[in-house]
Amino acid sequence: MLQMTVGDLKARFSMVLQQIKAGNDVEILYGRSKKPVARITGVEKAKKKRRVLGTYKGTFTEVGDGKITLEEFLGVNSLDEVEPLV
Fold it and tell me: Which of 11, 32, 51, 60 has a 20 to 30 Å separation from 19 between CA atoms?
């Protein structure tokens, strides 16, 4: 891993990008004590994960036939409680 101060990073940014593209990490040092404050790493292309079907199988239990009334869907006791849209 390459270590650089903030000033060196600013002065040699193009070289730093080449190092990162080559797969190297760069650690940024800051202050008089030159403590590491950040790390720059390359970006890898995300691999698509295959979806696993049936992941939740057996986790949920079905109650009834799964059909609900309009009143149940709206969360009211009767449709008279629903204000019409004007």
Answer: 32
In the chain, beta strands by DSSP E: 2-5, 26-30, 35-40
**List of residues 6+ apart from 22 with CB closer than 8 A:** none
Take residue 8 and report the two structure tokens written for it: 């060196």
Task: Report residue 68 as tokens.
Answer: 């609900």
- In tens, the pLDDT along 16-41 reads 999 998 989 999 999 999 999 999 99
Backbone angles phi, psi at 72, to 5 degrees: -65, -40
CA distance 21 to 43: 9
What proportions of the chain, in percent to the nearest 5, are helix, strand and coil?
25, 15, 55
Which pTM does this prediction carry?
0.49
The C-alpha atoms of residue 10 and residue 79 are separated, in whole angstroms, by 67
Please name which of 2, 67, 51 lies closest in space to residue 28, comparing C-alpha atoms.
2
